[in-house]
Write a structure and sequence with these properties.
Blueprint lengths: L1 E6 L22 E10 L4 E10 L1 H36 L5 H29 L1 H4 L9 E6 L2 E6 L2 H10 L4
Antiparallel strand pairs: 1-5, 2-3, 4-5
Helix pairs in contact: 1-2
Length: 168
C-alpha cells in the first residue's frame, strides 16, 4: 500500500486520478464517489472525491460494501434482541438508563461483529482484504488537516496519481 498526500489550498483541492481503474489499471467505465471527513460533531468538514473504476471492480466495491453494511445491521439487530430478551427475563420493568446502556453495548457488539466478518472474509476473498479501511476497493481518502491522504492498494496507480498531481 502506498500513501499520497494532496494539499488543500484555500479550501479547495485539485486531485486528478489517472484514466484507469484505481484497482486494476483497466480503462474506467464507472465513477464512484468517496467522501472523506474530519472534525468534531459540531464542526465537520467533508470532501468528496470521484474515483474511477472498471465495471467489474465497481460491482465488487458495491457488493463488498453492501455485505459489510448488512453484517453491521444484522449484528446490531441480533445484539439488541439478545440483550433485551435476556434483560426482560430478569427485570420486569427495566429503567430507561438500562435500555440506553444495552443499546450502546449492542452497538459495540455490532461494530465488533462487522470487524470480525471483515477479518474472516479478508482471508477468503482478496477483494475484501483490499477494501482499504472504508468501503472502497483499492483506495481510501482521509481528510487530515489541510490535506487529503490517499491510500492506494496498487502502487503503480499511486505513483501515477502522484505524478499527475505534481507530487512525485
Amino acid at each position: 500500500m502506498k500513501e499520497v498526500n494532496v494539499p488543500i489550498v484555500e479550501g479547495k483541492y485539485s486531485a486528478r486520478f489517472p484514466n484507469k481503474c484505481v484497482y486494476c489499471g483497466e480503462p474506467p467505465t464507472k465513477t464512484l464517489r468517496e467522501t472523506a471527513s474530519a472534525g468534531s460533531r459540531r464542526r465537520r468538514r467533508f470532501v468528496t472525491v470521484d474515483v474511477p473504476y472498471c465495471d467489474e471492480h465497481a460491482r465488487t466495491t458495491r457488493r463488498n460494501a453492501t455485505i459489510l453494511n448488512a453484517a453491521f445491521v444484522l449484528a446490531l439487530l441480533f445484539s439488541c434482541c439478545l440483550l433485551f430478551s435476556i434483560t426482560s427475563t430478569f427485570v420486569d420493568d427495566p429503567a430507561v438508563e438500562l435500555w440506553i446502556v444495552l443499546g450502546l453495548v449492542a452497538l459495540g457488539l455490532a461494530v465488533v461483529g462487522r470487524w470480525l466478518l471483515r477479518r474472516v472474509a479478508s482471508g477468503m476473498n482478496q477483494s475484501m482484504a483490499d477494501m482499504v479501511g472504508g468501503d472502497r476497493l483499492g483506495v481510501r481518502a482521509q481528510l487530515m488537516g489541510n490535506e487529503i491522504l490517499f491510500t492506494f492498494v496498487n502502487d503503480e496507480i499511486a505513483d501515477e496519481f502522484a505524478r499527475l498531481n505534481g507530487l512525485g
